[in-house]
Design goal:
Strand 4 and strand 5 form a beta hairpin. The chain contains one helix and eleven strands; from the N terminus they run E-E-E-E-E-E-E-E-E-H-E-E. By secondary structure, the chain is mainly beta. It has one helix at residues 106-110, and strands at residues 3-7, 10-12, 18-25, 32-39, 46-52, 58-60, 68-73, 78-83, 92-100, 118-119, 123-127.
């Protein structure tokens, strides 16, 4: 089974940037869809951004478009989430997740966290002055 380990979270001021990393082991990146999800206290878990392992497509939640960028580095077996222009509403625990490729659209998959079977431990992102 694929294993995921997140890193890169922390405390940042509004307008600042962070880059989250998700180290993947146990399988080839090409066979999976990878997603970044986040969950704030008292809120439901939501899909932030997803990318197919074969780089066929990407998805971004509307509120992060133009600010966040998801990418992968197959040579390093790592998926990244570059987060710029952070605001307090971005504060949450961020999780990296993976699932097998599916015939469903990437948008549909990224809006359904229950479909992802492998999850990292989460990393806290706090945006505050």
């Amino acid at each position: 089974q694929v294993q995921l380990v997140e890193s890169g979270g922390g405390l940042v001021q509004p307008g600042g940037s962070l880059r989250l990393s998700c180290a993947v082991s146990g399988f080839n990146l090409d066979y999976y869809v990878y997603g970044w999800f986040r969950q704030a206290p008292g809120k439901e878990r939501e899909g932030v951004s997803c990318i197919s392992g074969n780089n066929a497509n990407t998805y971004y939640k509307d509120s992060v478009k133009g600010r966040f960028t998801i990418s992968r580095d197959n040579a390093k077996d790592t998926v990244y989430l570059q987060m710029n222009s952070l605001n307090p509403e971005d504060t949450a625990v961020y999780y990296c997740a993976a699932r097998r490729l599916s015939i469903n659209t990437l948008t549909g998959l990224c809006k359904a966290p229950a479909g992802f079977g492998s999850w990292g431990q989460g990393t806290q992102v706090t945006v505050s002055s």
